[in-house]
## 1
Amino acid sequence: MRRVLLAGFASFGLLTAAQAEDAPRVQPVQVDASRPDWENPAVFARGKLAASATHFAFESREAALAGDMTKSARYQSLDGLWSFSFSPSSDAVPTGFEQPGYDVSAWKTIKVPAMWQTEGYDQPRYNNITYPFPANRPLIPHATNPVGSYRRSFEIPANWSGQAVVLHIGAAGSAYQVWVNGVEAGYSEDSKLPSEFDVTRLLKAGQANIVAIQIHRWSDGSYLEDQDFWRVSGIERSVYLKAVPKASASDLFVHAGLDKAYRDGVLSTDVALAARDKPVTVRMTLLDGDKTVLTKEAKVAAGAARTQTLAASVPGVRQWTAETPNLYTLLVEVL
């Protein structure tokens, strides 16, 4: 028995040594401003609006209750065919392509949204506990870090004048830089989350505008994604523009619970307001189907950005359970 145990121990020791040779390495200097953004852990976002709950500023109560933002006059889709250039190496990418005068007529086109691996470029990778590249945190091998460069044009509707224009990128990654008319709008590494950029100042009214996006397949953020899933890249969710009026909510936080007797509902909504040059009314309306259950509102003076909380009780609330999944509709208005 002792000889068997010793043999097993010796074999384990050899396996551990082999694993040690392939173990991920870590650079002694992590933050270095001379590196590209996608190799600098100090930079994971630039120019992005703060993350927020999913919401859309509809132009009317009826449109909000219908809930289809694609039919709103404040929505413009940028999905479809984009000009596209694929670079197998991050050191051999088109430079200056974000400038309006750059000629992309010889480029191919690619669908947005789509993973470029499904459109004939690169290949998907499936990894479980190992990284899909030689690990040397936070560095990425440049020669095997593919890059996709995207471009398309668009025009802004005339009736968007006086409103902020926000560019919404549903998901892309792992790291990407965004330009509008040759000027940087921002940078993001949230590959599975939406990013939004206020591009109002970069737009030209009444003429074609150019949006350009350059995506690196791997980045220092990829070191946080060491799990078993398919590694693909590109613009994987919809891209669109939205017009945002000056009087609007920039974020919402809805708190819904029960009182101590587990009978009545307790509802409160934190409404984050942008800076306002005139007073507004903030209102929340709870509906059960077409029936109005309650309405609560507050007047807010002009001033800097702030949060207004509206709170109310919901007597005899229809509780949600797995067996009785009752749902209400909450409408929030800034008037």
## 2
Amino acid sequence: MASIRKHRDKWQVRIRRAGLQPLSKSFSLRKDGAEWARQMEVKADRAELPTDLKALQRITLADLVVRYRDTVSVKKRGYENERISLTAFLHHPICSKRLSDLRTEDFAAYRDQMLQTVKPTSLKRYLDPIHNLFEVARHEWGVPLRDNPLGRLKLKAPSQRRERRLLSGEWERILEAARLCRNPWIEPIIRLALATGMRRGEVLALEDNQIDLERRSLLIRKTKNGHARTIPLTVEAVRILGQLLRGRLGPLFPITRNAFRLAWERLRERADLGDFHFHDLRHEAISRFFELGLNPPEVALISGHRDMRQLFRYTHPLREGIIDKMDRSTS
């Protein structure tokens, strides 16, 4: 905030704002001083003035990471994975740097070092919360950072778009391998994922009070985009859920996310699935919904997509099916 006072035969203007270096200048005319003060206030609003290095010298990157992990990440649905990632990041020497000394060049060196052991897509996933951390620090915590040091960091990651669908015989091998699992919940989880197109976390979080078999509907309260949705159930989904609900209250699947992840990895190796991921069952289900003749709004109601462009990324009709339709249209 600017202050103007008469000092001898001059008008002295001082500007003080939290996180910025104090500014002062003298003028012969008061109106010139007031005009300069307005210009400096505008620059301050635009983050164009020098930051207060003393404030940044008191804070290390580790201080921000710990605060972000314990106050922001903890509120996220994917907190456990992000907590592990951020805690591991704290052991890197870059976290001992003070914010006054931290530059994009430091993260470029970190990027180059990490790329020797991890893929670009994995590194991007690790850096996403760090990038968001600086945005929160700048805009919500009042940390006087002029810009985000990760904002100009270049990291080219290949597209994660997948077109993997079940090949002939793979579904049978998946079920056969699932029946060999010691955990009895693996097979119904996999069957339900394909019958509904639900995400892994949505399936694992299911409870009995979300299901209405009479109306053939299922309420998904916690979703990736934060919007609850009610989906219609296929005959197969009703059959699976009917068996699971017999005499059960509360959670349908008493298994942790990590336990299921490990079980799936063993199953995938046993069934010789190659690069088939569990999330590909969602791709398969959505593609099958379209092949059944459902239109995009109807499929979006089931999948939960609010952006049609994202929905179509999950849609991979089998080429054989397209060829059959083309042949029928010309016969």
